[in-house]
Amino acid sequence: TIDNREIPEPSQTDSLNFVKELDAFPKVPESYVETTASGGTVSVLAFTAMALLAFFEFFVYRDTWMKYEYEVDKDFTSKLRINIDITVAMRCQFVGADVLDLAETMVASDGLQYEPVVFELSPQQRLWHRTLLLIQNRLREEHSLQDVLFKNVMKGAPTALPPREDDPTQPLNACRIHGYLYVNKVAGNFHITVGKAIPHPRGHAHLAALVSHETYNFSHRIDHLSFGEEIPGILNPLDGTEKVSADHNQMFQYFITIVPTKLQTYKVSERVINHAAGSHGVSGIFMKYDISSLMVKVTEQHMPLWQFLVRLCGIIGGIFSTTGMLHSLVGFCIDVICCRFKLGVYKPKSMSVFDGHVNSLTPLLSENAEH
User: Which sequence ranges are marked TM in the entry (predicted)?
Assistant: First the structure.
């Protein structure tokens, strides 16, 4: 016969007992726990260290860092934007600016504006300019500061030259050339020289014949020069550069390598040629640029919440375990050094026989003892 009786399910008490047997953290009754002053001191130090490290870890969690990824730039069909803000110590009718690329193609400079200004800066502008030069000098020495600037870019911190706070009384003896140009993504030459540029079938030329050599003065200040879409807050290598010409016939050359990034950057070297000392060429400001084939992707990274919690648990558990082991080790060493070799603690008792008795008044066994 088949017994159809149902097997009774284990009671709730049995399940609870089974769960209790799996407890990896058994509780010790307070009557078996002994507290000491040394243990309390170590606990206070441990909790203080936990609080301090957790506090500093929170600031690490809130901080960000920059991640750099490199890849080949495959975009050769789009246009490259050049953002320009340069002040030249010559009148606007005497200078012209344009771009000539590697294919001898003259790029239209319709996006550039010529504004008559005073070359000397106001006191507030001069203070800003000195601060900018100080930052640029530190950047050349401490390259890690570039991460700080990239973070400021993300926040949109302003870096443009502030407007004049006073009305100038000097004559407008300089020309501020500012605006933008769109060029092909090939090597080229942006230059500012004497005379306005005119195109012709074999290139272009500048009408410099009507300008006297005595008026040549290519002292200049680069307030801003960048490539790509203009991003507020970024500092470019040539921002704040100021050159004063010692002679009328001088050529300033800048050799620029453009590294395509989402925060378009470049590196630069420069050279000054004095034609009055025997060199041949055209006086002016020439910026020869080339484009790197590698592209850098710069992204801002942030510690995820789960990683912060894991690090926080590691700090608390590590300090708790380490201080417990150190406390036990120090206590053991103290017991060994101070207690084991204490005078008289482990000395065996000396026994002497006198009148058939030991010094503890215990009678000795003898042959005449009754059994």
Answer: 42-61, 308-330
